[in-house]
Amino acid sequence: MAGKDGKDAKSSSSNKGNKKEVKKETGLGLSYKKDDNFGEWYSEVVVNGEMIEYYDISGCYILRPWAMSIWEVMQVFFDAEIKKMKIKNSYFPLFVSPTVLQKEKDHIEGFAPEVAWVTKSGESDLEVPIAIRPTSETVMYPYFSKWIRGHRDLPLKLNQWCNVVRWEFSNPTPFIRSREFLWQEGHTAFATKPEADAEVLDILELYRRIYEEFLAVPVIKGKKSEHEKFAGGLYTTTVEAFIPNTGRGIQGATSHCLGQNFAKMFEINFENEKGEKAMVWQNSWAYTTRTIGVMIMVHGDDRGLVLPPKVASVQVIVVPVPYKTVAMEKLFAACAAAVESLNEAGIRAESDLRDNYSPGWKYSQWEMKGVPLRLEIGPKDLEKEQVRAVRRDNSEKVDIKMDKLVTEVKEMLDNIQQNLFDTAKTKRDACIQVVKTWDQFIEALNQKKMILAPWCDEKEVEKDVKARTKGEMGAAKTLCSPFEQPDMPEGTICFASGKPATKWTYWGRSY
Predict the structure, then answer these.
(1) Helical packing angle, 405-430 and 290-299, nearest 10°
(2) CB 3.0 to 4.6 Å from 168: which of 90, 113, 325, 392, for a disulfide?
(3) Per-residue DSSP letters for 139-165?
(4) What is the per-residue pLDDT for 207?
(5) What is the predicted pLDDT for the residue at 464?
(6) Catalyzes what (predicted)?
(7) How distant, in Å, are the alpha carbons of 6, 469, 496 from that of 464?
């Protein structure tokens, strides 16, 4: 998917400006279709849907209120849940000294190409360059070793909401692959491994809920391979999503058990209950604004965004449909009354009373922005004391009596949320192909499938698959080994090596 640099951004915004007057008359529309040119469709949707604006530094984007409101809904949910787990919020600095950053070799090797460095202050060169955090293990853990002394200091459970910078990559894509992004990162330390293991899965379940219950995106919970796990960690668990249009998997969020590797490097020791010196067991876990991009890719259509009601900042838009025989005041009053009753019931509703746009143009704009439900009020609706409701997900229209407005709108929003998830899951499931042989694997890969195959779980075999499938579309790799493993008959062999298989694993191309 092509990214946009500063030059493209300027031409994009100037083109938008040129089209503005025309769009008033013709209605809003996208130039690209999702099935025909997914990359250009996505770039257009995120801008026209007012999610982002391109910035003059490549790979950096302005998150507009329409996008930030979605992030805030997820933040409110997740923050409340981790506080129930006695995890406390903190904030650590953006900058990292090179000596600390380079202390954990395996870890920093995984991030080295992406680390941005501050080398000047004004016109003066800094004596020692300062790194901008790509993640915060090396920022936080020197202080964990200071704060943890005895078993009573454990567990130490911290989270921070912040930004990180990862510089080196090609083809930046809004939300999916950007140089700066927002995330939460949790960092915890325990006296025992079982405590750490339990938290890893508790957090992963919260990530599943964010995707499935809020964003209406189906995900698979599983474990990353040794080759794909977090650098320097013991093991990585993940929620994996899939984009049927591109045939690519996408890592939704990860929860890592770091084991004792960082404890060893940063000397995070404690005196246990027996008076013996011991090392802590650590976890780290994060989800990012990538979640929003996954939602857009899964649900968006040729008319623009399609937002799940749970995360939409405007769940219902009320539009008056004027006619010369009816005074506008009456229509506006009816719209205001509908919005007020919905707001009082906790539904996020607004009215669009702009008089310089036709109702049809407004319909197109709010469809482009993905508002789940549109209510239209015209002269006949006033007479019949009703509103016309139009669903964004399937374009169904239904008339609702004013006295049943709140009840029926609530029910409709619930149905839209469920329908988005069910539709996405049906499409995702249709893309899953079970294979047993290399030839079947290659055929499924060429058909943009998410492939479930028996595997011997050997790193060299995984590397070989990657090398043998390398091409213009990108190489195939392991996505995850699902926790819910299908039965494996005795004697099943690995699809790639012919050795005895030990697990079922999802494979495919990925973002």
Answers:
(1) 90
(2) 113
(3) HHHHHHHHH--BGGG--EEEEEEEEEE
(4) 98
(5) 97
(6) tRNA(Pro) + L-proline + ATP = L-prolyl-tRNA(Pro) + AMP + diphosphate
(7) 38, 9, 9
Q: CA Rg, the chain, in Å?
A: 26
Cβ pair 310, 257 in contact under 8 A: no
Q: Which amino acid is at 138?
A: T
The residue ranges of DSSP E strands in 280-354, in sequence order, are 281-288, 316-320, 349-351
We find that the CATH architecture of domain 86-298 is 2-Layer Sandwich (3.30)
Q: Phi and psi (nearest 5°) for 386?
A: -145, 175
Q: How do residues 1-50 score in pLDDT, each as one tens digit?
A: 444 343 343 333 333 333 333 233 344 789 999 999 999 999 999 999 99
Q: What tokens appear for 80 in the block?
A: 């409340």
Write out the two tokens for 236: 């990585």
The residue among 309, 305, 308, 285 whose CA lies nearest residue 297 is 305
Q: What is the pLDDT of residues 361-383, one digit of tens each?
A: 999 999 999 999 999 999 999 99
Task: Say if CB 60 and CB 183 are below 8 A apart.
Answer: no
How much is the pTM? 0.92
3-state helix, strand, coil in the chain (%, to 5): 40, 25, 35
pLDDT at 169: 75
Phi, psi of 185 (to 5 degrees): -135, 125
Tokens standing for residue 289 = 């604004």
What DSSP character marks residue 329?
Answer: H
The length of the chain, given as a count of residues: 511
Beta bridge partners of 482: 222
DSSP 430-460: HTEEE--SHHHHHHHHHTTPEEEEEE---HH
Ranges of the chain with pLDDT below 50: 1-27
The CATH architecture annotation of domain 432-510 reads 2-Layer Sandwich (3.30)
CATH 3.40.50.800 domain residues, the chain: 316-415
Q: How do residues 97-115 score in pLDDT, each as one tens digit? A: 998 888 766 666 777 888 9
> What's the pLDDT at 101?
83
**Which residues fall within 8 angstroms of residue 308, CB to CB, at 6 or more apart?**
214, 215, 216, 295, 299, 372, 416, 417, 420, 421
Q: Which fold has domain 316-415?
A: Rossmann fold (3.40.50)
Edge-to-edge order in the sheet of strand 373-377: 349-351, 316-320, 373-377, 386-391, 397-401
d(CA 223, CA 446) in angstroms, rounded, equals 25
Closest listed residue to residue 314, CA positions, set 8, 73, 4, 493: 73
Cα 469 to Cα 229, 370, 462, distances in angstroms? 21, 37, 11
CA end-to-end distance (rounded Å), the chain: 10
